[in-house]
C-alpha cells in the first residue's frame, strides 16, 4: 500500500482497538497506525550507487494519510547505524512536544535497535505537511509527505480536483552526505553543494543515467489536478513551474489562501504549497521543473530537476517542452510572488491575527567567523541570532524544562541584539566573532508575540527560511533594508496576512510575524537551511504552562528514548 506499512493484527486485537478508538475519540475520528522501519538501502542515481538511510526502504518515504480530528500513531524502529529522530513538520502537537521530534530539543534520539512511538492528534489542521529526520543531515533521504484531508463531509474551499499528486522536491549528493558534512566541518567551510535536485526522489532526464529515474504523472484532457508541493531540499529555495500550464495557488503550509494564478511558484525549504493544474492544453508531454533561487553572491547547486506531466494516450517518444522558470537571481519575482500570498480569511477559515502585542522581539540573523586552530584557515564559519550561536545540549530541552533539571539551558535569550548597527549596509567583515550558549526565551502562556527577524550583512546578506515548531504564525509584514519600528508597523497587514509555519526572510531585509503562545512546551525555532542550522542559527522558546486544566504540558510517554 502507498500508505506505508500500516500494522496488521489478528481480528480480535483489531476489534479491541476499534472499541478503544470508539470510546476515546469523537464519532468521526479514527486512529491511523504506521510502522516506520529506519533502514539502510542501496540506491542508484546519476550513475552512482550508494547506501542511504530510508524509511521502509522507500525514497522518498511513505506518505502519511489522515483526516482533521484523527489520532496518528507511528512506531519508529531504528535499524540504521545513526541515531534517529523524526519531526512531523507543521503539526502543532498541542501540549504534546514529546511527539515533535527534533533531537535534543524535545527528545533524545532513537538509538540503533530501539523504537519510539510518536502518538499525536491532528486538531484543526488540514492540507499538506511533511515529515523528516531532525538530526544531523539525515533528512537528505529521510522524508515524506503528510496529506491531511478535511473532516468527513467538509469540502475544499476550491473546486474539487479529479486526482491529487505529491511533488516532493529534494537534493541528491553522490557521496555520503554525513561524510560530506564532516569534511566541511573539519575545514571550517561549507560542505560541497548537492549534485542534483530531485522530484519525488528522481532528478529527471537532464541528468546522466536518469532516463529511468524520472517521475511522470498522467493526466486526462479537461480534468483538474491538485499538486501537493513540498520543498524537502536541505539548502535551496526553489522555483517550480509546469510547461504550458498555469497553476492556481490554493494553500500554503496547510492553510487555505485566497486563490491566485501564477506561472511559477517560489518555495523555501520546509514550506508546502498546494496548486490546482487544469489539463487544458494540447495533449502532449510537458516538463515540470525545479531549480534554485539565489540572489546573494553564494554558490548553489544550480541544476534543474524535471518530471513529466503526460496526457493520456501520448507516446513516450514525444519530447517534452521545458517551462520558463524565473532567472535564478530574480528578486523582483520573489518579492511580488510573496506579496500575493493572503489567508483565505473566510467565516469558516478566519485569520485570527493578534491585534495587541504583549511581547516584542527583534532578532538579527548573522553569519560569523570564530577561531578554530584545527580548521583550514584557523577559523570556522558560524551563524547566530542576536550574535548568539546556539549550542545543542546533551539531553532534551523539554525534559530539562518538564523535570526542572538545572544546568542544561538558561532562559535569558535577549529580546534584541546587544547593540544596534546598520544591519544591511555595506558588508561587515571585522569583529565577526559570536558568543555561544544554550540560551532560550521564556514566553508567558497565551501572551501574543511579535517577532521581527532582521537579515544582516555580516559577511553577506542572504535569504533565510525560518521555521517555528509547535505553532503557525501570521506574516504581518516584510521589507528590504533595516526594519523601522517607527514607520513599518503602519504598513502591517492585520486583516488577511499569510499564515504559515516557515517563512523566508528576504535577502538584506526583514520579516515580522505574530503568534499567540497558547501551546505550552519547548519549541525550536531555526533556519531551515541545514547548513545554517548546523552552524548555530537556532534557538527555542519555553512557553510556560497556563493555569487551566488543559493548559499544561502532557506527561511524557513511557517509551521516550533515554539520553
From TrEMBL:
Residues 38-152, 164-313, 412-546 form the Plastocyanin-like domain. Its cofactor is Cu cation. Residues 1-29 form the signal peptide. Binds 4 Cu cations per monomer. It catalyses: 4 hydroquinone + O2 = 4 benzosemiquinone + 2 H2O. It is found in: Secreted, Extracellular space, Apoplast. Keywords: Apoplast, Copper, Glycoprotein, Lignin degradation, Metal-binding, Oxidoreductase, Repeat, Secreted, Signal. GO terms for molecular function: copper ion binding; hydroquinone:oxygen oxidoreductase activity. GO terms for biological process: lignin catabolic process. Lignin degradation and detoxification of lignin-derived products. Belongs to the multicopper oxidase family. This is Laccase.
